[in-house]
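During the second year of the project, the team shifted from modelling isolated chains to modelling whole assemblies. The rationale, set out in the original proposal, was that interfaces cannot be judged from single-chain predictions alone. As a representative example for this report, we include one of the complexes processed in the last quarter. Its constituent sequences, exactly as entered into the pipeline, are reproduced here:
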Amino acid sequence: MALPVPGSELAGAEAPVGGGTPAPRASSRLLRAIRGNRKATVGAAILLLIIFVAVFPGLLAPDSPSAAVYAQDASPSSAHLLGTTQLGQDVLSQLIWSTRQTLFVTLLVSVIATFMSMIIGVTAAYVGGLTDRVITVIIDVFLILPVLPLLILLAAYLPPGVTSLTIVLCITSWAFQARQLRSQGLSLRNRDFLVSARVRGERGLYIILREIVPTMTSLLVASFLSLAVYVVGFAASLQFLGLGNSGQLMWGTMLYNANQGAALESGNVWWALAPGAAVALLGASFALLNYAFDEIGNPALRRIRRRRRARPTA
Amino acid sequence: MADRSQSTRDDGTAEAGPAGPAKHEPLLRAEGLTRHFRVGGMFSKEVLHAVDDLELTINEREIVALVGESGSGKSTVARLLARIYTPTAGEIYYRGRPVRELRSRRDVLWYRGEVAMVFQDPFSAFNPVHRMSHGIIRNLALHRRELGREERWREAERVCESVGLSKRMLTRYAHEMSGGERQRIGFAQALALQPKLILADEPVSMLDVSIRAGILNLMVGLRDREDVSLLYITHDLASARYVADRILVMYAGQIVEAGPTETVLSDPQHPYTRLLLSAVADPRDADTDFSADTGEPPRVINPGEGCRFRWRCPYAIDTCETVTPRLRPLGPVQVACHVAGHLGEEEIAAPAVTEIRSRGA
Amino acid sequence: MPDPLLEVDGLTIEYLTDTADVRAVEDVSFSVGAGEFVGVVGESGCGKSTMLFGVAQLLSPPGEVMAGRVIFRGQDMVRLSAGELRHMRWRDYSVVMQSAMNALNPMKSIAAQFKDALQAHEKLSSTEIHERSASVLEMVGIDPAHLKSFPHQLSGGMRQRAMIAMALLFTPQLVMMDEPTSALDVVAQRSLMSKIRELQATLGFAVIFVTHDMHVVSRYCDRVLVMYAGQVVESAATENIFERPLHPYSRGLMDAFPTVTGPRRELVGIPGSPPDLAEPMSGCRFQPRCPVAMPVCAEVEPELYAVDSSEVRCLLYTDVNGLGETG
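Output from the structure prediction step:
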């Protein structure tokens, strides 16, 4: 029934504003959004837990991760909650000690890639014209790059290790958000305050960094979180495929080693499952946190408090 | 209206007055100013003639109103003068110098410090992330480098108060202020440059009526106290009458009538001006019956030769179809119309009118 | 005097939000007779649009009618069920929104949208649908050939006319309009208003016309309600409002309009802003900005007082302070 009087039109009928009350600061708004949204609260809690583990591994791990002194391929027991590896190392300790490096790489890559996509995307939007078209093509190329063949190629030339991993991850993940940030930049392009900045003689770089980007913080954080989800999983996958350095302590390398040691077939199943679960958990925490940002970015998603009142009487 | 030391000739250029030497060069002059946009896809041949062969003059210490409806091109004119767009053809002369020649960073900055702009929408004219002082301080940093940090802040406060706001407003954010307050800050930003010309693009259209008076009075005050000229762009004849010394009426990218405000409004020569007036004044006062006109927007895509108003004009003749009228003096005003001066005379044959109309519809 | 077509009695509407409850409309009462053209004027935040939506039963959360009755054709619309309302809607009353671009479906032709509206309320054959659609388009001055057009192919003025045509499909007795001409240029506005007036004379429907434009009101309305901060502050016949505005706010509004003809006088305007409706208020809501406020105005909230044929919400027109009536 297409009546030309949609009720949704009225969602826009604003509550009248008076002389203007100061809006709450961004940080308190953020906290409120996270606390208010259950999914985000859970995500935040998980992330904080993981950060704690990353910062204080010594407090929690029962053993040194490399001490290969125990019974090999043992199943979980009270002494080894997750069992041991093929070499007799405590899986739980390894898991705990790997947290720091994993988290570090995830965050580093996410920050770098977000920054890259922001600069490239917003510049393309702001400068426009031929530059924009060229950059868009470049973004598209990076998006459709077949990643695996590229990685195998790179793996042949780059020394295995965290640095290469970081480089490869950055190259393959920056394009992800660049399009979205470019769209946002395009929508802002002709806003009066940007025209005003041009008219007063600001240089392009200034406008991009000091006028456009600051208005996109919500979007940037959301981008960062989305990227982090992707990076967590992808880093682990790359390492699982052997493109990392198996000696370095990360959840992905644990997966690799577990696979090499045939953990699922003949050894300790938990040696493979535990790091996998950890990766999933970290990814989930970022994804859950992202819900809070949806709300900040789009006020229409905020829950409307409905109070049940008696129907009005005359 | 304030007493002015210079009087204005028919074509708008200033002549010598008792208080000062003749300024033969107007502050800003545009000749043949044209701006086209290509519309449609990459291969389309459709060209939107936003501004076509426009001439205008702005003198020192005067308020000129550029009046037109949507599709008239008035906002494009503002953006051309503010050098946001480059002209497709024609030239703008500022203080006698062609603006096209101002290319170096120094020259461009100089121009931007002379010509300021105030925007229509007080809601989107300010970056929500920054405080209201941001634009003013940046203007001072870019254009009045002789001021140190402390002095800049003092100057920001001074300029804020000169537009009637308390200096506390500088630390507020845009969403904490009302539309009228924001618009005042917009003028304060412009004033920080100590400009000679302020381009005000519909500065009161989005404000409540009771607030408009304050801004209109502010504009008149700026002309008198701060020695600045204003180009007031609007669709509202009444407010144009209130603030402006001269009025330019725009239709379909061209100026159709120009002259002193009271003269144009009390005795309009161009049929479009008459139409506009009839829409806002008492219809019984109108000389011409425009009741059939439904306000359809003008044709500005590939318009071709001929007067662009001819489809709606009750006085159109054959010439109007083929020859684009140019702005010519007619007594105290300038009009771009083949039949101006003869409106209402019997010689305008009705058949010509209906013929043109039926071809156009 | 015959019963009024619509009677609004003590309508109060609130917005319940996370941060505050805002009383957007407070105790508004007025009536509309058959064939009357009633204007509701006010500036932003005065609650006029909210009030209209409330009367038309179009409010959605967080807006809610907290009190009052809206009696139309003998029934209190506030208490009707959704089904009963749907039956009345479009047949007995219809609504025209501010921006046709927002209300018209850009993906459907005009004919399709008219058909949807018609079929939603009545069983009609396709010939009848086509005839009705063509005839309402003609009524508003659009060539029926445009039935095939899509909204983006029509100019702003034509789209707005199409909206009005849609509102007249069932020739309702009451048409409510929320700033239908604000997005239009002056000439299109004038043309549309004359057309509305013409249709009103022919078809005999009543109109509630919400606007901020006093020019339109002065020319076309029979009666005017002036709203400020959620309340009706003056209600009078049009000539009276314009020649002898009683409320200081109405007077301020009249003085704020520049004119194209007539003598040039200095514009004054009303300094300050309307009050924040989320905050509690005492006394008269206009008092902080009122040029003739008395000390008692800050404490006592005025009611609507009858003055000749008008009503004013101002203590100047009462015996408070023993002053009696002042001009």
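The interface with chain B takes residues 43-44, 141, 155-158, 184-192, 194, 212, 214-215, 252-253, 255-261, 264, 266-271, 273 of chain C (CB under 8 Å). Residues 115 and 129 of chain C are 6 Å apart (CA to CA).
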